[in-house]
Amino acid sequence: xxxxxxxxxxxxxxxxxxxxxxxxxxxxxxxxxxLENATARxxxxxxxxxxxxxxxxxxxxxxxxEDGYTAIRSYSVASASADEHLEITVDELPDGEVSPxxxxxxxxxxxxxxRGPVGGWFVWRPAxxxxxxxxxxxxxxxxxxxMIRARxxxxxxxxxxxxxxxxxxxxxxxxxxxHRLDQESxxxxxDYVYTRSTPEGWPAAPGRLTSESLLGKIFPTEEKPDVFVCxxxxxxxTVSDWLVMAGYPPESIKTERFGGxxxxx
Amino acid sequence: xxxxxxxxxxxxxxxxxxPPGQHETQDFPVLTAGPAxxxxxxxxxxxxxxxxxxxxxxxxxxxxxxPQEEITQDIHCVTSWSKLGTTWRxxxxxxxxxxxxxxxxxxxxxxxxGYTTNVPLWDLLGGxxxxxxxxxxxxxxxxxxxxxxxxVPHLYFWKSAKWVHGLELTDEDIPGFWESNxxxxxxxxxxxxxxx
Lengths: 265, 196
Prior knowledge:
The complex is a heterodimer.
Chain A: E1 25-35, E2 40-47, E3 58-64, E4 70-76, E5 85-91, H1 99-105, E6 111-118, E7 132-137, H2 141-153, E8 160-166, H3 175-184, E9 188-194, H4 211-215, E10 226-231, H5 233-245, E11 253-257
Parallel strand pairs in A: 7-8, 7-10, 8-9, 10-11
Antiparallel strand pairs in A: 1-2, 1-6, 2-5, 3-4, 3-6
Chain B: E1 23-24, E2 45-49, E3 55-59, H1 60-64, E4 69-76, E5 81-92, H2 93-96, E6 106-111, E7 116-120, E8 130-135, E9 138-139, E10 149-151, E11 164-170
Parallel strand pairs in B: 1-5, 2-11
Antiparallel strand pairs in B: 2-3, 4-5, 5-8, 6-7, 6-11, 8-9, 8-10
C-alpha cells in the first residue's frame, strides 16, 4: 500500500503525518550492513509494520545489556523507501558507548529495538517543488542522503544541490552513489569541500568552508531554495549565520545538529 | 525487558538522578530548528499578554532591575542527553507574574525568530520556571538562546524556549512548534513524554 503524505504544512496546523506509531518500541531485525569507510557502517533494518517515512526523520535505537541496562541513541535515517526497510549510517565515536557496538559487533540476524521514525520539521516531501540546497558536514550528510534518495524515488522535478564538507576522500559516505547520481541526474549537483586532504589532482587546497566558498557553491538567493544544513554544532551555526548574512531568509533554512555532543571538534 | 544484545555492555552511569532513557553528557549540545537570531539588548523586550488586552512588558534594563535568582538544576533534552547540576541566573516567572490578572491556564512562549512552545501555567509558576540570561556565570551565548531564554528544567528542554520574547496566556493548550512536529504536548521527562 502506498502512503500518501499530505503536503499540508504549518507550525500550528497540528497535522500529524507518519507519527502514528512513533512512541512505541518495536523490534527491528538487522538484514544487512556494509562499511562505508574505516569507521562508518550502514545498517539495514527490517521493521514489521513499517510503511515508509519522511526523508530526514530519525529513529531512536535501544540496546539492552544482559543485566537489563539500556542505552538509547538517535540516528538519522539514510534511506528512502515506502516499505518495512530502513537504513541508518553510524559513525563510530572512539569513546562512544553505543556506536562501536553498532559498527563492530552488531550482526545480520540480530534484533534490536527502535522507536520512530519521528520528526516533522527537518524533512523533505516530494510535493515540495522549490529548489533544495543541502549542506552537510561529515556524517551530517546522512539525513540529506535520505532526501536525495527520496527525490530519486519520486517524480519530483525539484532541482537539488548538495554541498558536502568532509575531512578527506576516504572519510566519504555514499561515495560511489553520490558520484553516479551527480553524473546521471541533470537535477542533482554535488560539490565537495575537503578540509584536511583532497583527492589526487583536486583543483583546490584542503581547507574549511569560508563564507565566499560557500556562496559560490549553492543556489543563489534569487532561486529561493529551501536550505537544509546538518553537521556538528559549530559547522551548522557558522554556515547558517553566513546564509542569513547573505540574505537567505531565516525561515527558509532548516538545521539539524548532529551527534550527541556540541563541543568543538 | 527488551531484546538482549549479547555483547553489548554499555556504560553504567553512577547517577540515579537520570529520567528513563536519558544518558549524562558533560557537553552542552545545541539543537535548534533554524539559524540563531541576533537580538541586540536595546531591541530586546519581554512581554506577557493576558485577557482584556493586558500587556506587560520589560525592556532589558527594566528586566535586569528585577530581583535575580541563581538556579542550579538538571536539564534533560528529548534527544536523550541530560546535563546535571547546571547553573543559571535569571528572573523567576513568579516575579514577572506579580501584576498579571488572569484566569487562563496555559501559555505559549514566543521567541524572537518565530519559535513557539506551549507550557501550562502551573508548570511556569511556583518556583518552577525562570527567564535566564546567564549560564555557568557567563552571559548566555546566542547559540544557547542569548540574550535570554525561558528555563523550565523539570520539562524536556525544548520547552525552555531560546531567545524568548514573551508569554501569551491562552485558554487552551495550543501545540507549539515541536508539539506540532511529532513531539509530546507536555514533555515530562520522568514520564518519558517524548513523542506525540
